[in-house]
Amino acid sequence: MVGVKTSLKYFVVDAFTSSPLKGNPAVVLLLDEEKDQECLQAMAQEFNLLTCFVTKVTTLKASKTPRYNLRWFAPASEVKICGHGTIACTHAIFSTGVVQGNEIEFDTLSGVFLAKRIIENNRSGSHEISKNDEIFQNGHKKFLIQLRFPLYPTVQLESNEMKLVPPSLKGPSTLNIMKMSRENDLIVELMSSKDVTDYKPKMDEIKKWPGRGVAITGLAPPESEFDFFTRLFSPNFGIDEDQVCGSIHCAVAPYWSKKLGKSHLKAYMASPRGGILRLNVDTDAQSVLIAGEAVTVMEGSFVA
User: Which of 29, 95, 185, 207 has its CA 20 to 30 A from that of 79?
Assistant: First the structure.
């Protein structure tokens, strides 16, 4: 960071929650111009949180939807795809008032993703915001942010990969062991949500898995409002337990959709902070709609 110092606006946003200090926190930095990777990684290490860098794309194009370049950095390395970070970015941009519509496009390492504001209606499900919608609650705007992410199928493990599965996840409560086809995340289905919440991860075991992380999932209790519970551990990215991960549901949601015979799902991330995800699996479009609330908990300036 050599040269003239600049002040960069940042937000800390808790994603997949409507309550501060719940869900998954992410830092959002609004940049006037692109910065080199070493600088971005250093800033993420400084915050010691998932840090998102967004830069407005000014090139004229046919679409009227505002577009931003977006990169996600965990404290240890860059991330190829991140749901909660994208939710946080969308929330932060809308909160500035610079976008008047309800849609934003993000150009990322994993492609261009569309994010939009929607209203959740208990009777009719979710729908796009119209001029007639009242989206204020207690003086604050009340809406969900929905992302259209790619659907990543799960595939079974090869025999050599089975050797790398944490021994603590090979017990009698394990129903299925698979991995995400794209990010190589390990996904283990356990017998129940209680097995998910009670699981005590051994990070030394989990670090041996060569993918992004190790996820566990289980059927939610019938009396709950959820379809399934999930947890994700990513110590190799500097995050022992991901508080709420959107992108893991690119694979977990289609898995449960097929198993439960339904496309609309509600998931609970059973981390210490917890988080709620509304999911819609679209097999025809090979995509997963991931929606959640978000709340800004901090704003400030980063001098770089």
Answer: 95
